[in-house]
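Q: What changes when 2-acetamido-2-deoxy-beta-D-glucopyranose is included in the input?
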Amino acid sequence: MIFCITIILTFFLAWSSSNAAPLSAQSVTVFSPRITSPKAAILWPRGSIHNVTWDTSNIPREKHGSTGMLMIGHYANNSENLDIDHPLATYFSIDKGWVGVTIPQNLPCRDDYFVVLFGDSGNRSPKFRVCKT
Ligand SMILES: *[C@@H]1O[C@H](CO)[C@@H](O)[C@H](O)[C@H]1NC(C)=O
Ligand SMILES: *[C@@H]1O[C@H](CO)[C@@H](O)[C@H](O)[C@H]1NC(C)=O
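A: The predicted holo structure follows.
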């Protein structure tokens, strides 16, 4: 189990430090806006309101006007466990560079939540926590 987690974290770090877009079956233009908030290990308590922000400087011309969707997830059982039934935000403009979110009241305590921004490709934030300890 420990071994497994090490592998997953290593993969995560390698993935997020490269600027590579996730593999896609189609070779359409993808871009991966870098998420600039939340920062790693920040505390965003349940019920609190924040802006998730991302870098808009490399959005290709043809992707302007795209709408995005933001989901919360955490690593467990070899999966990202994205809460696809309860997106944090939907139908916002990718061009804006930010979207307001409320951290759900019913989230279990974990220190490895992340958000994934879906536009034309997904991009994942650093991990943050929702409880003080
Ligand atoms: C989010 O950003 C917008 C635009 O900068 C700002 O008006 C708003 O107050 C911010 N919300 C929070 C919760 O910081
Ligand atoms: C991982 O899987 C086990 C067995 O299916 C389940 O009981 C547990 O809740 C899962 N853990 C998380 C964090 O999803």
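Observations recorded in class: The radius of gyration is 15 Å.
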